[in-house]
């Protein structure tokens, strides 16, 4: 296929992945899922990349979810395979060893909202709208929405949004905690890059372990979570980066971390 379904730009240790099917509002078909999975697999082991930003191409949409034109042609088995694939991909994004920022540049519905839920930080443009709209098609969110949304915004709000299939605009998304920040559409990527640059100033191993501790600790009781945090901390102690951080503080300079 000549069409690039995922556009990739790497600059200053930040990879911007752009979903590139603007003619269908960047909706997911099998081919785009496979392309995004390939990119995520490559980035996982690329030490030159510290942060990932995911956004959508065009002026209208971040991602409108599954490509329903493709969906209507699929057999029941193929639909199951699609859901299995997208659920697994979003879990890989959630568990990626680097922070992932969703730059929500427009409409994000169904799987589009589930994608931003799997990211670590969500920054939306003022024209963005989000929603888990699956029940309006007599199905339910199948790529993690029923699990990640209540963990982010609370059980009651999540149930309302899922049961009604209602969309929320950027302002409401910020109010309920669905996104971290809202900014002007024109400055969205710049705002995301600013956050990414701040992350790139920190220790790579520390960020990987902090993400692991938060993700895994939230899934258990506080005692177990503290044990997870403790084990993650121990991993940072023998690193060269920790010593570099102390030396830079003593010498009043910026540290140079190497992920070692």
Per-chain topology:
Blueprint lengths: L5 E6 L2 E6 L10 H15 L6 E6 L4 E3 L4 H4 L4 H19 L5 E5 L2 E3 L1 H8 L2 E5 L3 E3 L13 H9 L1 H10 L3 E2 H6 L5 E3 L4 H13 L3 H14 L4 H15 L3 H12 L9
Parallel strand pairs: 2-3, 3-5, 4-6, 5-7, 6-8, 7-10
Antiparallel strand pairs: 1-2, 8-9
Helix pairs in contact: 1-3, 3-4, 4-5, 5-6, 9-10
Structure commentary:
It is a single chain. The chain folds into two domains: 6-200, 2-enoyl-CoA Hydratase, Chain A, domain 1 (Alpha-Beta Complex), CATH 3.90.226.10; 204-251, Orthogonal Bundle (Lyase 2-enoyl-coa Hydratase, Chain  A, domain 2), CATH 1.10.12.10. It is built from eleven helices and ten strands. The longest helix is centred in the first third of the chain and has 19 residues, at 76-94. By secondary structure, it is α/β, with parallel strands linked by helices. The strands form two sheets. The chain has a six-stranded mixed beta sheet, with helices on both faces. A four-stranded mixed beta sheet has the order 4-6-8-9. Strand 1 (6-11) and strand 2 form a beta hairpin.
Continuous helix count: 11
SS class: alpha/beta
Please list the strands of the largest sheet in the order they lie side by side.
1-2-3-5-7-10
Beta strand count: 10
What general form does the structure show?
globular
- pLDDT averaged over residues: 95
Helices and strands, in order, run as EEHEEHHEEHEEHHEHEHHHH
- Specify the CATH homologous superfamily of the largest domain: 2-enoyl-CoA Hydratase, Chain A, domain 1
Low-confidence stretches: none
In the CATH scheme, what's the topology name of the largest domain? 2-enoyl-CoA Hydratase, Chain A, domain 1
CATH-scheme architecture of the largest domain: Alpha-Beta Complex
Number of domains: 2
Portion in helices: 40-55%
Strand composition percent:
15-25%
Main beta sheet: 6 strands, mixed
N-to-C CA distance? 39 Å
| CATH class (first level) name of the largest domain | Alpha Beta
């Amino acid at each position: 296929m000549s069409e690039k379904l995922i556009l990739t730009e790497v600059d200053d240790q930040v990879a911007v992945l752009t979903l590139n099917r603007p003619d269908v509002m960047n909706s997911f078909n099998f081919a785009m899922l496979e392309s995004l999975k390939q990119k995520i697999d490559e980035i996982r082991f690329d030490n030159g990349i510290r942060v990932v930003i995911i956004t959508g191409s065009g002026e209208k949409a971040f991602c409108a979810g599954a490509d329903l034109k493709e969906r209507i042609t699929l057999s029941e088995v193929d639909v199951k395979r699609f859901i299995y694939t997208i659920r697994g991909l979003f879990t890989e994004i959630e568990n990626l060893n680097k922070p992932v920022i969703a730059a929500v540049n427009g409409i994000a519905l169904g799987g589009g909202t589930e994608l931003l839920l799997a990211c670590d930080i969500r920054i939306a443009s003022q024209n963005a709208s989000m929603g888990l709209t699956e029940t309006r098609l007599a199905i339910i969110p199948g790529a993690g929405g029923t699990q990640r949304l209540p963990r982010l915004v609370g059980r009651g709000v999540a149930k309302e949004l899922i049961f009604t299939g209602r969309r929320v605009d950027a302002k409401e998304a910020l109010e309920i905690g669905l996104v971290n920040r809202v900014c002007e559409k024109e400055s969205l990527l710049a705002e995301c890059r600013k956050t990414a640059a701040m992350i790139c100033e920190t220790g790579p191993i520390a960020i990987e372990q902090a993400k692991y501790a938060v993700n895994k600790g939230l899934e258990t009781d506080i005692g177990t979570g503290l044990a997870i945090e403790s084990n993650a901390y121990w991993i940072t102690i023998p690193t060269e980066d920790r010593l570099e951080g102390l030396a830079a503080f003593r010498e009043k300079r910026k540290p140079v971390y190497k992920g070692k």
